[in-house]
Design brief:
The protein is of the alpha/beta class. About 25% of the residues lie in helices and about 30% in strands. The protein has two domains: about 5-95, Immunoglobulin-like, CATH 2.60.40.2180; about 95-350, Alpha/Beta hydrolase fold, catalytic domain (Rossmann fold). The strands form three sheets. The chain has an eight-stranded mixed beta sheet with strand order 10-11-13-12-14-15-16-17, with helices on both faces. Helix 5 packs parallel to helix 6 (about 285-295). It is globular. It starts with a strand and ends in a 5-residue tail after the last helix.
């Protein structure tokens, strides 16, 4: 029996709601149940409601409420469906729009590339994922959060490059550090940066090769990333100071290293966006200080947006008034959803910049 799970990448990241079972007899909705494992630290299983079961030609379509198929899940049946036992390990995930991106490995870099249908040199957006998408599957950087696929659909006339950073401390199997208790002074931890200067140098070289081949417009190369990728965006603006027209770091990881880089971008066009506060409690303090330092140094192209509670709630973030503060700050971290939906015109600003010689 062939089993397919249909999924897409939405505001909450990878989302699925349909199981497709080929060559299976009709069953009733009450004969199947779906459980999904949730929780980042303390894991538990929750039941996902089955909405309908329909048979079309030789396939059975089981529609459920949306869930994240990146987590462990189990679809089981009883009665006439007793032969159904679907797990993440034995299902094929079909991700809508994944095929827009070509899978590549060059210069010791794993990456995905969306290429526009154009004969002349086009702009390029470099997308840097967050810490949760590190790895070596050359896929999770597309599916872990709203990001590269969304950008390709918003700007089909531009290249979108999405490299993947290797696994570090964030994906080592060790317990996650308590972000609410991290201290700025000791936050430059080896393995936490993900987007190292060496890796970003190789990524920039790939873009330069595309420029040399006449594919990419050298005056319109942009970089955007969130969280760890926001810190990576700051590093990229330093490593590729001659390459990028502008950058848009979203909730960037702030450490002594990235703060020093930020304060040094005195001739760089950038727009930082983040929540008024999130799970790294000191993040916005150093972002504000850095942007003010740039303005004091005369950089009129250094912009900052701190999303208010009301703006975050409009996108379903931290809407429960009874939510504990730690959970609220964690929910606020997904402020990239607002930026990628062009709140305050940040994406429009980014993609309209032209590098000056």
């Amino acid at each position: 029996m062939m089993i397919q799970v249909n999924a897409w990448v939405g505001d909450s990241g990878l989302t699925a709601d349909t199981f497709v079972l080929k060559n299976h007899a009709a069953i009733r909705p009450e004969e199947v149940s779906l459980t999904v494992q949730v929780g980042f630290v303390e894991k538990k299983e929750i039941n996902i409601p089955i909405l309908s079961v329909q048979r079309q030609e030789n396939a059975l379509y089981i529609q459920t409420e949306p869930f994240c198929p990146a987590n462990e899940f189990r679809l089981t049946g009883t009665g006439s469906a007793s032969d159904i036992s679907v797990q993440k390990s034995n299902a094929t995930l079909h991700i809508q729009d994944e095929a827009l991106f070509e899978k590549k490995e060059e210069n010791d870099v794993l990456y995905r590339l969306y290429s526009p249908a154009a004969a002349e040199a086009r702009p390029l957006i470099l997308f840097l994922h967050g810490g949760g998408e590190c790895g070596a599957d050359n896929l999770t950087q597309l599916t872990g959060t709203l990001g590269a696929i969304h950008l390709a659909k918003c700007y089909p006339e531009m290249y979108v490059m999405a490299p993947q950073a290797p696994r570090g401390m964030l994906n080592s199997g060790k317990p996650m550090p308590n972000m609410n208790q991290m201290r700025f002074a000791t936050s430059d931890t080896p393995g936490m940066e993900g987007w190292s200067r060496a890796l970003l140098g190789r990524v920039c070289d790939l873009i330069r090769q595309m420029i040399a081949a006449g594919k990419v417009n050298p005056k319109r190369v942009y970089v955007i990333g969130m969280s760890m990728g926001g810190g990576g965006t700051l590093r990229a603006l330093s490593v590729g100071a001659d390459l990028f027209a502008a950058g848009a770091p979203i909730c960037p990881t702030m450490t002594p290293d990235t703060y020093r880089i930020l304060c040094g971008l005195t001739h760089t066009k950038l727009w930082i966006s983040t929540a008024y506060i999130d799970h790294t409690l000191y993040r916005h303090k150093y972002i504000v200080d850095g942007i003010m330092a740039l303005k004091d140094a005369g950089n009129r192209d250094a912009h900052l947006t701190l999303y208010s509670p009301e703006e975050l709630e409009a996108y379903g973030l931290a809407t429960d008034p009874e939510m504990p503060l730690a959970a609220k700050f964690g929910a606020n971290h997904a402020s990239w959803i607002l930026t990628l939906h062009n709140e305050h015109g940040i994406l429009s600003w980014l993609t309209e910049q032209v590098r000056e010689d």
